[in-house]
Design a protein that fits this description.
This protein is of the alpha+beta class and 454 residues long. It contains 14 helices and five strands. The two termini are 57 Å apart.
Length: 454
């Protein structure tokens, strides 16, 4: 009877623990839990737990002489294995960023394990197997895991209320910052194992229970503070970009105003000549005047007005700021540009930061290729239709692009250790089944296309 009860408890523990890990991790990543994904992880977790217990039992006698070191290595491998399974599954199902998934999984493991350990330490000093085995098992093994699940759900709801996912992504914008956060989270996941090796704490002692509870609270607030701090830095940067964009607008408007004044003066002289032709009945001369005036207007004012119209059609203001900044850099590099936005762009179908990264990569690639060519030209088209956003970036080139080689990860015509732009683009678009990319060469132009279906 006791054996059957122990087996049932172990299966129940596996279900609760795997659910807690999975649920908190996907909430941190701002994804919706899916039954299929959880069932796969639950079964994999349970099978791994069973086999690990069998292996542990078979090698435990041989490891008695170095129990401390053996336990440390075993826990590191076991917890890393659980995390690796969950990370692989989430990336495969949700197409999430690898670094963000690792951090979310590590945080989830730390939270659930800490809460479970806290309850285990508290109950371990107050309940003994000699009193009642079933009650002992329920209070020292089942209750801690149930508490871990309840704590994970509670913390997940708090993070949702705080809109933590909006700040979480800002921890990974820069590679160095992302690497530091990832390594720190992995160390945090193994915190208790490392502490147990360095400074063993008596299980059930008030000190152990107190430090476990305080540590998890401090960790949550520290993580929230770090995420908000980095988000605020990015907001300040975005505001600076907006100010720079407004300065560009003002400069362009001043240039347009000067052109209008010049055009007004010239147009007055042209009109005076046309009046004389009209008085003399020179119809052919008037027709030539109208044609020349239209061409003159397009040459003097048409391009600036079309540019302002296109920019004003981009209603996603972060994208507007990005394109304005990129066009300013093109002007500095002597690259001729053409921007076409015939319809208002009001929605993108993916996260706005991912759209900015995709468009930024496409424009940067185009500029790098165009600046080495003779024509030095880049053309950007944004077309918004019901249910779809279509973007194309075309550029001239000095060397014809090899489309086959460009599909390979890390390839770049600019040398070794380059070409991360296209890899990053494929990685971002790979997260969205409604997002497609295409590259082609047509009329001596290299064309990159991005299609997003809503």
């Amino acid at each position: 009877m006791y054996l059957l009860f122990s087996v049932i408890c172990q299966f129940f523990i596996c279900i609760c623990y795997s659910l807690a890990l999975y649920y908190l991790a996907v909430v941190i990543l701002d994804r919706k839990p899916e039954k299929r994904c959880f069932l796969i992880f639950c079964v994999t977790f349970t099978v791994t737990q069973i086999f690990s217990n069998l292996i542990y039992a078979s090698v435990y006698d041989a490891a008695l002489e170095s129990t401390k070191i053996f336990s440390f290595v075993w826990n590191i491998l076991l917890y890393s294995g659980y995390a690796a399974i969950l990370v692989s599954l989430i990336i495969h199902i949700y197409h999430t960023d690898a670094a963000q998934t690792v951090v979310a999984t590590a945080i989830s493991h730390f939270v659930v394990f800490t809460i479970s350990l806290l309850v285990t330490e508290f109950m371990g000093a107050r309940v003994f197997p000699d009193d009642n085995f079933i009650v002992y098992m329920l209070l020292t093994t089942v209750l801690p895991i149930v508490s871990g699940l309840a704590g994970a759900v509670l913390i997940a709801r708090l993070l949702k209320r705080w809109k933590f996912h909006q700040y979480f992504k800002f921890l990974f914008i820069k590679r160095k910052r992302a690497a530091i956060v990832t390594v720190s989270s992995v160390v945090l996941m193994h915190y208790h194992t490392i502490i147990e090796l360095i400074v063993p704490v008596e299980i059930g002692s008030p000190a152990a229970t107190l430090y476990s509870g305080i540590f998890i609270i401090l960790m949550i607030f520290a993580l929230q503070f770090a995420a908000i701090y980095n988000a605020d830095k990015e907001k300040i940067k975005a505001q600076s970009d907006t100010i720079a964009q407004m300065q560009i607008y003002l400069t362009l408007l001043e240039e347009l105003q000067q052109e209008v004044r010049s055009f007004r003066h010239d147009f007055t002289n042209l009109l005076a000549g046309a009046s004389m032709q009209a008085a003399e009945g020179d119809l052919k001369g008037i027709q030539e005047f109208m044609q020349n005036t239209g061409s003159y207007f397009d040459e003097k004012l048409g391009s600036e007005i079309r540019y302002l119209e296109c920019i004003s059609n981009i209603k996603i203001y972060s994208l507007q700021s990005l394109i304005t900044t990129k066009i300013t850099k093109m002007q500095e590099q002597g690259i001729a540009y053409l921007l076409e936005v015939p319809n208002p762009v009001i929605e993108c179908g993916i996260r706005s930061e991912d759209l900015l990264r995709c468009i930024g990569i496409l424009i940067d690639n185009a500029c790098e290729a165009a600046v080495g060519s003779d024509e030095k030209a880049v053309k950007l088209i944004l077309l918004q239709t019901p249910g779809e956003l279509f973007a194309t970036v075309s550029n001239t080139w000095a060397q014809k692009p090899d489309l086959v080689k460009m599909q390979k990860k890390g390839y770049s015509s600019k040398g070794k250790n380059r070409g991360t732009g296209l890899s990053s683009l494929r990685k971002i678009t790979g997260e969205y089944p409604n997002c497609m990319t295409r590259m082609r060469v047509e009329n001596n132009m290299f064309i990159q296309e991005l299609r997003i279906i809503f």
